[in-house]
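Q: What would this complex look like in 3D?
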Amino acid sequence: MEILIYGAVTSAIYALLAVGFTLIFGVARILNLAHGSFYALGAYGTYVLTSIVGLPLWSAALIAIAFVAVFGIVVEKVLIRPLRHSQLGVLMISLAVALVVEQTLFLVFGSEYRNVPSFVDTKINLGGVDVAGQRLLTLAVAAVAIGALYIFIQFTRLGSAILAISQDPEAAKYMGIPSDKIFSVVMAISAALAALAGVMAGPFLSVQPSMHLLPIVKAFAIVVVGGLGSIPGSIAAAFLLGYAETCVAYLISSSWTEIVSVLATLLMLVFRPAGIFGKRAAF
Amino acid sequence: MLYSTNFRSLRRLATASALVGAFLGLISPQVLAQAANTKPIRIGVPTSVQLQVGRDTLTAIKMAVDDINKKGGVLGRKFEFVAADETENPETGISAIKKLTADEKVDLLIGGYTSGVTLAQLPHISAAKTIYLGVGAASPSITAKVKQDYDNYKYIFRVGPINAAHQARNLVDYISNFVIGELGYKNIAIVGENAKWVQDLVPVLAKGAKDVGADVKLTELFDTQTSDFSPLLAKVKSSGAQYMIVVLSHASSDVFAKQWHDAQVPVPYGGIDVKSMDGDFYSRIGGKSISEVAANFAVRAPLTKKTVPFFDEFKKNSANSPVYTAFFAYDSVYIYAEAVRRAGSFDTDKIIKELEKTKFEGVAGEISFDEMHDVQAGKGKLSLIFAQWQDKGERVVIYPKELRTGNFILPPWMKK
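A: Here is my prediction, written as structure tokens for the whole assembly.
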């Protein structure tokens, strides 16, 4: 029972992180190493707006997410677009963005840890297991966000356009789909999802300048396991990894959990480079 | 720094006039010797300037230097200091020592934080024949060198903190006298992060706890990258432990406390938690460390007659409460000044002989050195002070008993 619940919460955060990462790769072939920075900026944005500006948490969270989405668009338009023709160039520029964001946070806020307030402070008992309210809320928010994304892609015009580009960018172009505009939209969604994860996880994970590393490592592992560019694949992989880590922590030892994701990435790359749901090898 | 700036311009003037004088062949050797006697004593501060431990080291040294200079300095010479960033990387640490000793030509060194860095610096400090007063690193190997090779390493002293072996002993005392003796909790769990010093310490701790009558229900180390402690905390809860002893030093402290609080784990915890020594720990995690007991070297309580004034003075110079390096850095300047005064000279060997005789009432307790130049631990000397986070982020000393400033509280969700 404990494994079931804790595993679900961990998986939900991973899924929220990985979906945005895989979306921008699947659609625009951008391997965005600055994805973790969006997560960090979401958490820091909420911190600044609540602790310094004094806004209520809900509005602070929404403003922070909107800000990160705009930041994502700017990064895509100004920095990534000119280098789109080269995968390596994109990789380098997004890494540069990640480092610049980290150093900026470091200079502005110092190396100290910051506090993002929780939305809920109560403890909830589920089938005899104590779970922090904030975690359950995170699980619910992640489910809603991913569900909304799915509906958006499947049932709206813009969503169809995104899907079309991800399936065949050239054909989509000939059909008159403005790919640059679509990339901006996708980047905004991807950044907003990462920021949302930062806002939700900030209260129970750490908020400090190098916090972008954790999500990028996890998202990378999940996406490799699930298949780069496949959204159902990343969700499945997020759950696989989330549960695998929880099981290992329970049944073996907490000192072994972190190796799980690294090992999964390695095995997947060796035996099935396309991932579980991937159609083609990513690299 | 009014004093040193004035002095620097004075010195520049003196150098300029000396040059002119020498050129004219009018200067006498006596005048030159006198100029050397009044030049400031330069303190080199190798530390991690980007971390709070480093920033607080510098703030504390500045406080001590300003105070001594105001009173006229030592043997007619004033103090000034210069910092070098040693980061947490041994290579950079060595460059910092070289910069301070070779380029800045400092008279003594006060600093240090990471044991690995300090150990790498030792040969370079001894080669430069410069006195080093350590204020941050806790590895026993640092001062062990003094015993192995006195002639080369006699320059090394540790003013604080007490070394890791003493810390482990203090923690066992806490378990035996307080957790078992006063709270009556025999069933304990030991949880630590998987770092080298914790791997060394935990078996010693588990054995010590068993020897004093504790029933260790669970011993678990977790990876330093761990972000989700729910499974671990659930295990502690189901193990039947009544108290959780922690050994944490890095990033995990904040997350650990937050998740422990949010899941309202019905097991109080305490132990060595380096990040929980920070004055802002309580506020930066939104008060979620309530009831955690963290070992400290000093908190704002009348440990010695210097403790409270130091904390108050520090508040005027910094936005945060001081961390442990600040206490020892502050004391170090005075300890050196007193040794020089007693020696009546600036001869390094004479100063070392006087430093060895140190018996100094510092911010955190009495400071004296053993034959390894390591600060002595024990009653009336330095020891760990177990302070509990209580309402509004107040730290209340609960152990040792003779220093107690308040009563132990349970986590809010365990109160009946």
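A: To summarize the key features: Chain B has two domains: 41-161+303-368, 165-296+384-414. Chain B touches chain A at residues 50-52, 194, 220-223, 225-232, 234-235, 237, 251, 254-255, 258-259, 262-265, 275, 278, 280, 283-286, 413 (CB under 8 Å).
Q: Very helpful, thank you.
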